[in-house]
Amino acid sequence: MFSDLILRNSRRSRKENGLFFSSLVISIIAFYIILSLSRQDVMIFLAKMESDAVSRLLLMIPVFYVATLGILFFLIYFACKYQLERRRKEFGVYLMMGMRRKKLFGMLLAEDLLGSGLALVIGLPVAIVISELISLITAKLVGMGIIGHQFSLSVSAIIFTIVGFLVIKFAAFLILSSKISRQEIGTLLKPSVENEKREAPAVVYGISAAAGIVMLAATYSMAISGISWSRNVMMLLTLVLGFVGTILLFFGMRAFIAVLIKKGKTDQKLHVFTFRQIQENVIRQSTSMAISSLLILAALCCFGAGIGIAGAKSLSENHVQDYTFRNFSTENPEDVLPHLEKTLLGNGLIQDFSQIWEMRIGYVYEKETVTDTEDVTEDQTVNDIGNETTAEDNALNENESMDVAENNIEDRIIDENHAVISCQPVIDEVRKLPQSEDRDLIINELESKGIANDVYLICLSDYNKLLAAAGKPTLTLAENEAAVYEDSNWTNDIRNQLFNSVLATKPEIMLNQTPWRLTGEVQTLNLVTDRSITLSFALIVPDDQFLQYTNGDYTVYVNAILNRENGRSASLMSAISDMNERLDNSDLPEEDITYESYLQNMGRQLFFMVAASYVTIYLGIIFMVVANTIIGVQFLMNQQKTGRRYQTLIRLGATYKDLCGSARKQINWFMGLPVFVAAVSSLFGVKALFVGLISSYKGGEGQGQMIAMAAAMILLLCVVEWVYMTVVRRSSDRYLLTLMQPQREE
Fold this sequence. Notes:
The longest helix has 46 residues, at 700-745. The protein is α+β, with helices and mostly antiparallel strands and 746 residues long. The protein has 27 helices and 10 strands. It has helices spanning 2-16, 18-35, 41-49, 51-86, 88-96, 101-141, 155-181, 185-189, 202-225, 232-251, 253-263, 271-284, 286-312, 336-346, 378-384, 391-394, 398-407, 424-431, 437-452, 460-469, 493-503, 543-550, 572-584, 598-641, 643-651, 656-693, 700-745; strands spanning 323-327, 353-363, 421-422, 456-459, 481-485, 508-511, 514-518, 538-541, 555-562, 593-597. Helix 3 (41-49) packs antiparallel against helix 4 (51-86), helix 9 packs parallel to helix 26 and helix 26 runs antiparallel to helix 27. It starts with a helix and ends with a helix. Strand 6 and strand 7 form a beta hairpin. Among the domains are: 1-192, no CATH class; 329-591, no CATH class.
């Protein structure tokens, strides 16, 4: 009998408060996914390449775990409080009929454990499946393939998920149940009384709404324009304006709803009652609605930015060569490639590569500008090329980044009267283009060449081999003709289109006092596998003139592509991993030959992507669960407090259908307003994140892809919000049905 009562009560609680139960399941899923991160294929692969970075990321997981436990504790406490308050009369009846308080406490504990166990039984299998899907999708998204994927089950993640969930659930239960069980029977049987809140004059609400809109507009403008990212103070000001503006907007919505009441069709059933309820709820819970809206905004921004970053940073983009070799023991650049081929042949590795070719890079040699005491060595050239830029450097402002890339050369004396390059005719052509930020960046870049007095050259035949390997048409250049090269990290599609329109006119430049013509289109293929080595600007020139202008002093990189026939049964990543082991066990280290594989380069970029996507998506899930549970439960609590009003309407002849229709309109407004404000704000918020955090994607195809994926994710989350609203509607309908029951018995 007692066990049947527990089962019946537990089943009824889940039906009446499906929103809370669903949130518990989602929380369990989020817990397991973040805790099992170390067992993901992507992380296992990344640990081989970037073990230190992975270790730091994994050390952050306990911090997220503990912080999430704290957040969810208050969520569970809030929702359980609503559940127990809703059953106050039921508990009073149990005690009045002779049930001991210890037995009542035991009954509530059994119900709670049953509900928690069911949430774990449902949530953990779903979490395991989703975790595997995320692992496969992420691997596919970054161009890794499956990499010999195997099903993984993190026992430690399961244990910590169960323990953490039960601890916070039991703690919230103890606090609330002890309060309920100590109350007198008369207090429990007494219906809850709604708290009245004094209303302010209508003009106050109007001013508040106007001030909120102005503050939010200022926030959006500062964020998108990049002002917020200029200084910490401006970022703090932006956050404060956004927070205060949202609070004021929701506080002032009473004036907007009052207008709707007056202009609405008063002949509709329960029209005035419905909007009065909405108006009072907004007044009474304006702060909760604002905070929920901000949490939903945070969730949308996290999801949008995380998915956008993951999608836009596909590592398969511009992938041509699998390996890049450097030979530090050979002084003569012409001997680098033969020596490497001989070493590979001696170790039985030469047949594993389908293509091997040089990539010769140097800068214009100027006898009169090089000091006698500071010779420019090959190692200095290596350090100068791209200035060893890293992924963190690429997040700098583009203007600053270009300045760094061109001004770090300390070994050359600047002679303004004999500049290596003069781009003034090209600059004049660019100035004729419509004014834009991208046009100004091109001008600044070209003007910096004469100031830095440093021009990098790329050998035409070498670059043509790269184009052929990529399946692209090769370049044909006449004497004193050059093609422009810019690394993809330093430019974008819009800027390239602008520059190409100028190159179509074949503008003239002066190189060592000799006129040259720029032709073709901007070239952006990665010169080497190592993406930390970049050139913001270079000229591709014919071979003879390359050797003439560099005076035979240049850096040689050797690119190689694995023989796909030998690795037919394995994925590319597996083939590269196997080759890395063979290279490490060869004579290459003894010959002072180093290599950089696509696998190693991927590891550096992948860390940023994983940290951005996994962490932000995890936080997005938590924010979404907390926000929707708070706003949904808040409405149901307000509905319960105003239950007498619904009973009065029933006595006046209102039908169950009329009451449900009124309640659903209230839900649409009460939950829809925070979602609507958050969705509008997220369009600006995601854009601001891209502007501030990922400056290299400013404009062009990359940012377009990110914004498109972010928009799709925001749309998907709006669908999730609709599901939450549906769950609240059903809970409301069940509650209204209980109010109709006494009338039916009469």
